[in-house]
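Task: fold both queries, return tokens.
Query 1:
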Amino acid sequence: MKPVQVVALTLLSVVAIGAQVLRLGKCPQPAVQANFDANRYIGKWYEIHKLPTSFQKGQCATANYTLLSPGVIEVLNTELLDNGTVNAIIGSAKVKDPAEPAKLEVSFNNSPPGPYWVLSTDYDGHSLVYGCTDYGLFRVELSWILSRKPTLSKETLEKLHAILYSVGVSVENMVPTNQDETYCSPVNQ
């Protein structure tokens, strides 16, 4: 195969798997949360902003994390779809290397694991998550800004956007998640 054909096939395969944010170049290697403590991270988090994904279609998204064993976290993601249905999926996140506990790999329904890197968290207020996978000359990026409450201050949001921007993430592509209490009541029951 010629190099152009390989690039075209790689690009087509990325598009075929539902690329979220496709960018030219290799994945950055941002610093992650120092001394990450999974015991403090477990519990409920509300999605505040995200890079668009093909696998998340709803609003009111939350993530509940439960520690199963050292280095293994159960993940329960829920969202409210446009038709009023609550969609939920269970997966697991595993620490890849105990020396870097903030770099996890998450999988759902026996899917191949994907990177889930905690770049920043204060455990009680916010969490900034980033994942990136290389596909030849391109990369697919995912990112979520999470909060322990359905809202997050503008100052904290700007601080977390600045972290993403500093590693080359297009924060202008991030979209807010509706966490309105009344609208989201089916998820929060």
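Query 1 returned. Query 2:
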Amino acid sequence: MAESDWDTVTVLRKKGPTAAQAKSKQAITAAQRRGEDLDTTKKWSAGQNKQHLVTKNTAKLDRETEELQHLRVSLEVGKVIQLGRQNSGLTQKDLATKINEKPQVIADYECGKAIPNNQVMGKIERAIGLKLRGKDIGLPLEAKPKKK
């Protein structure tokens, strides 16, 4: 009976502190009092939903001064669309309905705010009968014979 002493208690499944408890302010100060070595690192994006790392080119991009913009429809093309539409007796809404686009698309093309889309430009060309692309902008559209 020498092995079973009433004064000592053996705990079999004692768990260590959890990760959150080990990182708490109390755990850190207790470890400092005991003289243990601590390794603390500050997370640079803690508490934020940043999934991607900052690339090495960030400073280079910050120094970049060139402003990149999409090319817009020229005012010349806008005037041709407006004249062709008026000669056909169409409003912006009528032309938009005819080519299955929104009226705002026609308004953007006429005032030069739109980014040119060849598909939309082709529809407008066919609807008003004037060329909008290439060298001869504003000339009548030539009907191409259909291939048999």
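Both queries returned. Flag for query 2: The helical segments are 19-22, 25-34, 58-63, 75-87, 92-98, 103-111, 118-128.
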